[in-house]
Amino acid sequence: DAGVTQSPTHLIKTRGQQVTLRCSPISGHKSVSWYQQVLGQGPQFIFQYYEKEERGRGNFPDRFSARQFPNYSSELNVNALLLGDSALYLCASSWGGDTGELFFGEGSRLTVL
Amino acid sequence: GENVEQHPSTLSVQEGDSAVIKCTYSDSASNYFPWYKQELGKGPQLIIDIRSNVGEKKDQRIAVTLNKTAKHFSLHITETQPEDSAVYFCAASDGNNRLAFGKGNQVVVIP
């Protein structure tokens, strides 16, 4: 069975640009979460979506937005990129509810120049 | 919000020895404590987890213990092997699928 898949794996943007990252959850999983991992740090929670509705938002500016589609895949959008947005963006899927068991993808490495 | 701290930041062990990583958390409402292993260039992989109604859980060479009173939990790896070398993250959640991670521990197993 396929795990969580993310695209693109690597991308380079310049300050002020916009980026869209994509995630496909494990088949049958209805919840998708997004995390930002800066080099040398643990992942930081950005968003959680369950059944296409936002269930939680971390301490990130409004430049960050996301959505979940009817097939449970998800997109993370970041506008007006800053140098500090350079990070590994991780998508995690779960069955939903409150199991807490998150399964992560390999991430999208974003570099902002 | 929840604050999770990990110690030590780097741990070197001889192959075959045991490794222990300790984490503390701040929110007494947290009830789920997973451990993730992250290899270079990969996403975190869930290796073991424990819920607040259990004090200890084992899976082959890996075990996790939880002390709710002291708000700390630990990962124990026995008979370490070179493939155990990685960054290990502890995390805590109050059941809403939102994980608060520690900063990670680099474990180096010396052959």
SSE topology:
The complex is a heterodimer of chains A (113) and B (111).
Chain A (H helix, E strand, L loop, with lengths): L4 E3 L2 E4 L5 E6 L6 E7 L6 E7 L2 E5 L6 E5 L5 E5 L8 E8 L8 E2 L3 E5 L1
Parallel strand pairs in A: 2-11
Antiparallel strand pairs in A: 1-3, 3-8, 4-5, 4-9, 5-6, 7-8, 9-10, 9-11
Chain B lengths: L3 E4 L2 E5 L4 E7 L6 E7 L6 E7 L4 E4 L2 E6 L4 E6 L8 E7 L7 E2 L3 E6 L1
Parallel strand pairs in B: 2-11
Antiparallel strand pairs in B: 1-3, 3-8, 4-5, 4-9, 6-7, 7-8, 9-10, 9-11
Features:
heterodimer; A: 113 residues; mainly beta; 7-stranded mixed beta sheet; 11 strands; globular; B: 111 residues
Q: Output the helix-strand order of chain B.
A: EEEEEEEEEEE
The low-confidence parts of chain A are: none
How far is the first residue's CA from the last residue's CA of chain B? 40 Å
- pLDDT average of chain B, as an integer? 93
User: What would you call the shape of chain A?
Assistant: globular
Task: Characterize the biggest β-sheet of chain A.
Answer: 7 strands, mixed
- The percent of residues in helical segments of chain B reads under 10%
Query: Which series of helices and strands of chain A comes N to C?
Result: EEEEEEEEEEE
Strand content of chain A: over 45%
Compute the number of helices of chain B. Answer: 0
In whole angstroms, how far apart are the ends of chain A? 37 Å
As a percent range, the share of strand residues of chain B is over 45%
Q: Biggest sheet of chain B, in brief?
A: 6 strands, mixed
Structural class of chain B: mainly beta
What is the number of E strands of chain A? Answer: 11
